[in-house]
């Protein structure tokens, strides 16, 4: 088989999930031990990849912070790609906004009395953090704002750690299931395919949940694994958990495909780059599209159609 055919065959195994459903996405954070970036372990049949789970656990040591008496933004580990935020006030509706170098503002819900973890997915730069308390209706007043210059130790770290959207620990059942699937895979591409196949064959789309999802809904990956039911957010979070815990950088992406609100995932394959938009949910079933390769600036991308209908808004 010539190289072009081999490359084409390999590309058809890149799995990216586009999950179609409308849902309200407002909160983020979660988890609490600083760890170095895991080494990539792409293997071959003769030299298989490391299949042991590797979970990077966020922490909030408090060695460097921003904030006041009501809110503490722990910026001790920004080089690892995340911040931890603790709101100690008594307001039930509190928002965190995050932006980098004046770019897109990410808005999250803060949970009272908990330590929330938020990924710094916009790369290196000066991050601005604003915390707002609800006054009445949809009105908020600023409780605190501050800035921190960030230089990531590794550009993939924000897509390897857990956060509230993708909340898992070393003891999560989803991590154990990912490790089990990894034992059957010889390389990252095969593992991504096995994770995709496992989830779509074992988890049913929950139409009732999609129609009635509540404001601020957050997925529970172990619950999805146990009940074998879920919506777009659940599918994406479960797959992201399995892949991140196997050292495969994975983005959970929120945006639109045409007029529909979606969540999908993108994976990074060493030597190929970020791969997008192969798999989508058409409202009835999950479908693997015939991939069309488009290579730009060293990145290989897969598109559904010509890719023009995909509009990424936020990445977690």
Question: Can you describe this structure in just a few lines?
Answer:
The protein has 6 helices and 19 strands. It is of the alpha+beta class and 316 residues long. Mean pLDDT is 78; it is low at 1-46 and 286-306.
How would you describe the overall organization of this protein?
It is built from 6 helices and 19 strands. With 316 residues, the protein is an alpha+beta fold. The strands form 5 sheets. Strands 1, 12, 13, 14, 15, 16 and 19 form a 7-stranded mixed beta sheet that branches. It has a 4-stranded antiparallel beta sheet with strand order 2-3-4-7, with no helix packed on it. The longest helix is centred in the middle third of the chain and has 15 residues, at 188-202. The model is unreliable at 1-46 and 286-306 (pLDDT under 50).
Low-confidence stretches: 1-46, 286-306
Number of helical elements? 6
Tell me the β content: 25-35%
Strand tally: 19
Cα separation of the termini? 39 Å
Question: Which structural class do the helices and strands define?
Answer: alpha+beta
Shape: globular
Question: How would you characterize the largest beta sheet?
Answer: 7 strands, mixed
- N-to-C SSE series? HEEEEEEEEEHHEHHEHEEEEEEEE
Helix content: 10-25%
Radius of gyration, rounded? Answer: 19 Å
Mean pLDDT: 78
